[in-house]
Amino acid sequence: MKLKLTITLFFIAFSLVTHSQTVKNIDQVAPFSEDLAAIRKGDQWGFINKEGTLVIDFRDDLVWDKNVDDSKFGQLSRPHPLFENGMCLIYSTGEEGIPMYGFIDTTGKIAIEPEYLNITSFDNGLALGILCTKTFKGQNEFKLNIFEYKFSEVLIDTKGEIMEFIGRRDNILMTPRRYEQPNLRSKMLSGDLLAVWSKEKKWEVRKLEL
């Protein structure tokens, strides 16, 4: 009787463990990257580990694009979410309704706040992005808030620290009807070589001192 009870409990426990690792009704499964694979339900994505366990729950702020444009640098070239250098791109739309980009870590926590208008994934611990700095300046006569925006193309590390200031970016309109996502004008060539598109519409190569 005791043996029968033990066997029964074993099969119940095994069934519960097996069931807990089953993720059903998935629309898309992406390849593994850094031991995590993105899975999609509708427009939400989550991540499973190599045991098939859902380790980051489904969410709607992960960056992906059904219609990938390979000619673009940054978030426009991402067919599905993935982790690179322990970081995965997310986005958030603020009061203006304009998407800002940041990163989560492998626990699903925000590691870099969404404050970039465009940004690449991390490679060798570095990413290129267009940082948007927003400063409250007061209210106008109609009691509407007035903000000043500044834009900078920068090179950052996985802690969000600016490693290299590449240049100011101008003529970016922060109203939803007129906003167009700015393209990055720089790209990493190697660990310490950076190519920058200049005002003369020519590439220049800079050697970084990191």
From TrEMBL:
The keyword Transmembrane does not apply. Keywords: Signal. Residues 1-20 form the signal peptide. Pfam families: WG_beta_rep. InterPro entries: WG_beta_rep (IPR032774). The keyword rRNA-binding does not apply. PANTHER family: DUF3298 DOMAIN-CONTAINING PROTEIN (PTHR37841:SF1), GLR2918 PROTEIN (PTHR37841). This is WG repeat-containing protein. It comes from Poritiphilus flavus.
